[in-house]
Write a structure and sequence with these properties.
Belongs to the ABC transporter superfamily. This is Amino acid/amide ABC transporter ATP-binding protein 2, HAAT family. GO terms for molecular function: ATP binding; ATP hydrolysis activity; branched-chain amino acid transmembrane transporter activity. InterPro entries: AAA+_ATPase, ABC_transporter-like_ATP-bd, ABC_transporter-like_CS, BCAA_Transport_ATP-bd_LivF, P-loop_NTPase. The chain has 233 residues and is α/β, with parallel strands linked by helices. It has one domain: P-loop containing nucleotide triphosphate hydrolases (Rossmann fold). A hairpin with a 2-residue loop joins β9 and β10. The strands form 2 sheets. A 6-stranded mixed sheet has the order 6-7-8-3-9-10, sandwiched between helices.
Length: 233
């Protein structure tokens, strides 16, 4: 489904990604792991078209998209729930969700909105409330729900556990795991490696802009180097 070959990106003279290659197969949940500043968010921003690639290829279904505009990538089925949620706090919950469907012209938006409310019942209960009234966990649910309203084939999640209580993290990751049953492929960026690998099929570990480990979720959890560096055991 998604293939990245030799991808590099930078901010001015500061290199953020160096020769990154990875694959995400259709129907998988793949975790992109690493410490703060490793380049994880830059990779997602480059995939969604928000940040330009310096060199390398991004292939979706075998077709290059590294030069495509962000809205074109949305039309191709890529959606991102960004780091920090970035909900529109002065708008209502339902208006935030509508923005996720801004590229759509079909008649199924209302049905899909109801499906988001079924995934996150608290959003349905608070649909008329402004987003600033929501807790951090509820705002994260809203950010994911907004991304789902674009009907993605590939959902990019950036640090969905950031700043949330363990109970809310477990709830959100349980819902993310269920998206496989809806035919949605997920690439999730996380510092919380144990939680991410708990739902992922495979993972990649990024350090200073380079992939340094890759494997199945179980293999990475059992890898002494990964456990020592990221799990503290």
């Amino acid at each position: 489904m998604l293939r990245i070959d030799g991808l590099s990106a930078a901010y001015g003279r500061v290199t953020a990604l160096q020769d990154v290659s990875l694959e995400v197969d259709e129907g998988e949940i793949v975790a992109l792991l690493g410490a703060n500043g490793a380049g994880k968010t830059t990779l997602l921003r480059t995939l969604s078209g928000v940040h330009p690639a310096r060199r390398g290829r991004i292939l979706l279904d075998g077709k290059p998209i590294e030069r495509s505009k962000p809205h074109t990538r949305v039309d191709l089925g890529i959606a991102q729930s960004p780091e920090g949620r970035q909900v529109f706090k002065s708008l209502s919950v339902e208006d935030n969700l509508r923005l996720g469907a801004y590229r759509r012209r079909d008649r199924d938006i209302a049905r899909d909105t109801d499906e988001v409310y079924a995934l996150f019942p608290v959003l349905g209960e608070m649909r008329k409330r402004i987003a600033s009234a929501l807790s951090g966990g509820q705002q994260q649910m809203l950010a994911i729900g907004r991304a789902l309203l674009s009907r993605p084939r590939l959902l990019l999640l950036d640090e969905p556990s950031l700043g949330l209580a363990p109970l809310i993290i477990d709830q959100i990751f349980g819902i993310v795991a269920s998206l496989k049953e809806k035919g949605i492929t997920v690439l999730v960026v996380e510092q919380n490696i144990a939680v991410a690998l708990g739902i992922a099929d495979r993972g990649y570990v990024l350090e200073t802009g380079r992939i340094v480990h890759t494997g199945t979720a179980r293999a990475l959890l059992d890898d002494p180097a990964v456990r020592d560096a990221y799990l503290g055991v």
